[in-house]
Amino acid sequence: MSYQVPRMNELESRAWLSLVWTAELLPAALDAQLQAESGMTHFEFIVLSTLRQADDGALQTKDLAAAVNSTMPRLSRVVGKLATRGLVERIGGQDDARVINVHLTGAGRRALVRAVPGHIALVKRLVIDRLDAQQLEVLAGALEPLVGRLDPHNRVGFAAVQHMAE
């Protein structure tokens, strides 16, 4: 017998609990793979990937924080660690010393390039290869409106980076 969330029918419960447990379990699996193979966390990978997509590989910290859905203190700690490892640089703003730009270094770009194949292989093994093309279409069609509802101003992800460039 499956668990049913109170005040939801069986289908609603299945869908909701599947989404919740995917959201809980997938990041831990991605993090473990990236740590083991590339020495970086999934969040560090997201930061580096976001910078890679930005014009000139750089973003202001406030824009980077929004794009990766992070608080400023968390982002500051992670950027500090990445800077210590030579993967990013923090550069003061030309007109305002309070503005800090985070720039992806050549070493950061190379670390990201080395990390991508293993990361993509795991994503394919855990998610993509488990679903056929129709199921992937349904998944994308179901989740895209949720992302749009949760982020109506396109603050996160690569859409945010593209939006900032306009």
From TrEMBL:
- Domain of life of the organism encoding this protein: Bacteria
InterPro entries attached here? HTH_MarR-typ, MarR/SlyA-like, WH-like_DNA-bd_sf, WH_DNA-bd_sf
The family database entries (Gene3D superfamilies) matched by this protein are listed as: Winged helix-like DNA-binding domain superfamily/Winged helix DNA-binding domain
Using the record's annotation, list all stretches that form the HTH marR-type domain: 12-148
PANTHER family reported in the protein's UniProt record: MARR FAMILY REGULATORY PROTEIN (PTHR33164:SF99), TRANSCRIPTIONAL REGULATOR, MARR FAMILY (PTHR33164)
Q: Provide the protein name.
A: MarR family transcriptional regulator
What species does this protein belong to? Answer: Microbacterium kribbense
